[in-house]
């Protein structure tokens, strides 16, 4: 989800939306739609539970700093790793029965 007031079409290059999301009409401030297809064995019933988590610093970004041989990035990465398992914030959840197609 994009921050309130963020416009994909006018964002500076440093924070612009790239890739397929840049042209995705429903990737906006109000949300996004994502579809998943999962092979499951026949039978059921199944229930799908989804959680939307927010983490202010992503794993990949934080770990990109790991290669720098300087005290500041090393300290930052150690802080990140010590807190990363408890830093995501639960924003929303949804649960629904899963319709299994034959």
Question: Keywords for this structure?
Answer:
102 residues, two-stranded antiparallel sheet, single chain
What can be said about this structure in brief?
The protein is an alpha+beta fold and 102 residues long.
Question: Can you put this structure into words, describing what you see?
Answer:
The chain has helices at 59-64, 71-83, and strands spanning 46-54, 89-98. The protein is an alpha+beta fold. The protein has 2 domains: 1-35, no CATH class; 43-98, no CATH class. A two-stranded antiparallel ribbon has the order 1-2. The two termini are 34 Å apart.
Per DSSP, the total helix count is: 2
Sheet of most strands = 2 strands, antiparallel
* Helix share, percent: 10-25%
User: How big a fraction of the residues is strand?
Assistant: 15-25%
Structural category is: alpha+beta
Spatial arrangement of strands, main beta sheet: 1-2
What is the general shape?
extended
Give the ordered list of helices and strands.
Answer: EHHE
Number of strands: 2
| Poorly predicted parts | none
Rg on CA atoms, Å:
19 Å
The chain-level mean pLDDT equals: 86
Rounded to the nearest angstrom, the distance between the terminal CA atoms is 34 Å
List the SSEs and their pairings.
Blueprint: E1 46-54, H1 59-64, H2 71-83, E2 89-98
């Amino acid at each position: 989800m994009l921050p309130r007031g963020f416009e994909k079409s006018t964002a500076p290059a440093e924070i612009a939306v790239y890739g397929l999301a840049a042209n995705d009409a429903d990737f906006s401030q109000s949300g996004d739609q994502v579809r998943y297809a999962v092979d499951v064995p026949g039978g059921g019933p199944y229930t799908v539970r989804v959680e939307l988590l927010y983490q202010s610093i992503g794993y990949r970004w934080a770990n990109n700093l790991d290669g720098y041989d300087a005290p500041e990035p090393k300290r930052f990465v150690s802080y990140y790793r010590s807190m990363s398992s408890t830093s995501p914030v639960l924003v929303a959840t949804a649960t629904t029965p899963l319709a299994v197609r034959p």
